[in-house]
Amino acid sequence: MGWRGIKNGKLLDLMAGTFTTLVTTDKNFRFQQNLEQRQISLVILPTNRIPLILQLVPQIEAAFAEIRPGEFREILLPSTGG
Fold first, then answer.
1. Using CA atoms, how far apart are residues 2 and 7, in angstroms rounded to an integer?
2. Element (DSSP H or E) covering residue 77
3. pLDDT at residue 76 in the model
4. The whole model's pTM is what?
5. Long-range contacts made by residues 34-41, C-beta under 8 angstroms, separation at least 24?
6. Residues 23-63: pLDDT tens digits?
7. What span, in angstroms and rounded, lies between the C-alpha atoms of 60 and 75?
8. Using the 8-state DSSP alphabet, how is residue 75 labeled?
9. Integer angstrom CA distances of residue 22 from 78, 79, 80
10. pLDDT at 60
11. In whole angstroms, what is the distance from residue 43 CA to residue 39 CA?
12. Which residues pair with 44 in a beta bridge?
C-alpha cells in the first residue's frame, strides 16, 4: 500500500478509510493512540508465535464479532494454573 515508514497516528488515519480492525502484538499501542475519534478498532494479541495464535483463534474470532470502532480488545494467553 506504500505505507512503509508512516508513523502510528497517521497510519491509523490511512487505515480507517480501508480497514476496520488492526491486529497487533504491541501492548503499548492502546496507551499511545486514541481510537475514540477514528473509525477503526484494535485487537491486541499476546504473542506473534503462530502455534500459540492458532490456539487463540476462538477468542480472536469472538473479539472480531464484538468489537466496535474506537475500541480495544486484548487477547490473553490462557493461564497454565501452575
1. 13
2. none
3. 92
4. 0.81
5. 35/69, 35/70, 35/71, 35/72, 36/70, 37/70, 38/12, 38/13, 38/69, 38/70, 39/69, 39/70, 40/12, 40/15, 40/16, 40/69, 40/70, 41/67, 41/68, 41/69, 41/70, 41/71, 41/72, 41/73
6. 999 988 888 888 888 888 999 999 999 999 999 999 999 99
7. 7
8. -
9. 22, 25, 28
10. 96
11. 14
12. 24, 74
Interatomic CA distance for residues 53 and 77, integer angstroms: 9
Please name every residue paired with 22 in a beta bridge, in sequence order, or none if there are none: 42
Strands (E), 1-82: 21-24, 41-44, 72-74
The CA distance from 58 to 35, in Å, is: 24
Q: How far apart are CA 63 and CA 78, in angstroms?
A: 15
Quick: pLDDT tens for 64-82: 999 998 899 999 988 765 5
Which grid cell is 56? 487463540
